[in-house]
Amino acid sequence: MPSLTFPDTAPDPSRCPLCGTPNQCAMETERVTGEPQPPCWCTQVQFPSAVLARVPASARAQACICRACASAQATNVTTLWL
């Protein structure tokens, strides 16, 4: 039986690479609109290594993880909101 192959596609930087929902990344919003944005929430948190390990290699450093996915795996959710 032949195996199916799919073309490599670039990840959508406005969507979470884990769940596909909008990631609300301020850096991507600024890139698209040209309007200055406040620092993105994701630049001020530490992501659990288990979450980062789930990001497909093709999406690493290309698309931000959303808050829901980041907090779902956190052992200490309060660290995500500091």
TrEMBL record:
Domain of life of the source:
Bacteria
Pfam families per record = Cys_rich_CWC
Q: What is this protein called?
A: Cysteine-rich CWC family protein
Q: Which organism is it from?
A: Rhodoferax sediminis
Phylogenetic classification of the source organism: Bacteria, Pseudomonadati, Pseudomonadota, Betaproteobacteria, Burkholderiales
